[in-house]
Amino acid sequence: MTVIDIKTVPETYVWGEVKHFFRRNTESSTSSSAISIRGDINANNRQLIDLDLRVNGFNNNVGLRVFGSADLEENSIGVDHVLADASIDTPIIGGKLKINPRYDLRNKVLDATIGYSFRDTSLNVDSQSKKLTISQNVGKNNRIIPSIIIGKRDFSLSYCRDLQEGGQVMTTWKPDDCISIQWTDGGWDAIIRAPIEGYYKTNGGVKVSMKQNVDVSL
Fold this sequence. Notes:
By secondary structure, this protein is mainly β. It has no helices and 15 strands.
């Protein structure tokens, strides 16, 4: 449930997912793959179902994801985005290369992200936004993540601290813009965003949002 205004009824979403695993055993190795489909329904608009189809194979080294929607009133299904990803080991230079091509069917736009990781350092380039991101592990549970948009004066610096049991706290600083803190712990996710200037203003001040994911088994 998402509360937008205390004077209005909260928005309610319902979703369901079906997943099937495949496993193949050979004399030298064991490979696994999975296929799943998820549907999301807004309780205020139950005629439209958002669809998310995922296919993962070869121990998650290759994957395909398709976003679409089903219109129950029109009895039609449409596809909006197609995403693929592939991870390739590079034994000559070491590390791993990751390629993520994406295609927007509605706007007919093709782009991709390319990433490379080696030991404690990883690099990612987004061809559409021309954003370069570098992540450097510092110690056991800390990461420094600077990013810049090539050709623009758009820079940010993040510090991420891994917590016990899978949680993390990330602080991001954008010069002349804002400072934000994101804290995830279990099913909780909290974000605090404060502008560099004007934090006392009503419409542009500090913003706080929190949400919790709850798993329900029927």
